[in-house]
From TrEMBL:
The chain crosses the membrane at residues 105-129, 149-182. Gene3D superfamilies: DnaJ domain (1.10.287.110). It holds the Pfam family DnaJ. The keyword Ligase does not apply. The lineage of its organism: Bacteria, Pseudomonadati, Pseudomonadota, Betaproteobacteria, Neisseriales. Residues 74-95 are annotated as: Disordered. One of its GO terms (molecular function) is misfolded protein binding. Residues 5-70 form the J domain. Coiled coil: none annotated. One of its GO terms (biological process) is ERAD pathway. Residues 76-88 have a biased composition (Polar residues). This is DnaJ domain protein. It comes from Neisseria sicca ATCC 29256. Keywords: Chaperone, Membrane, Transmembrane, Transmembrane helix.
Amino acid sequence: MENRNFYEILGISADADIAEIRKAYRDSAMKYHPDRNPGNPEAEERFKEIRQAYDTLVDPERRAWYDESLREFSGRSGQTASQQTGSEHTAEAPRQDGDRTYVMAMYALFALAFATFVMPVAGIVLAYVKRGDMGDSVYNNHADYLIKTFWGGLAGFVLSKITAFIGIGSVLLFLVSVWFAYRLAAGFVRLTDNKRMSLDTWF
């Protein structure tokens, strides 16, 4: 059986969203399901490929890992199956590399908040401007995470100023600073591992 990547197995582009992945899986699985092709080993093998491709691409973290592996393989070999079938797959790797650079710049700007407040403002502007171009990727997730961190930190900073007159403002500011630094450190570590952050919690 020819060597194809998971996107080609499902017949989708590398920037396909979850809905497209699920639809492609349903269509392909129905066609090659063993119950519809009894005694056909080729169809059974094809169905296993389809299932493996779907299980990987439908999971954001596994998909991010797979995309990274695909890019690394492309760099080593100089050619992948995606390069043989269309330029849209080869364009995906440089685009995601650019997204990664933008997100790392966001983290750097946010980290400079301890030196000057202007830097995280620049960081959140960059996050709002670029996240729309990142699709449903791990980098889009980190941009949203940093936006949430910014507004949480700003709210804590304002509250510390309001409560300064009753003597707890400095304590609150310290706690907010620790929280802010923790969020940045945790997020950056996850980014270097190509993993997403939870957007449902504040810690």
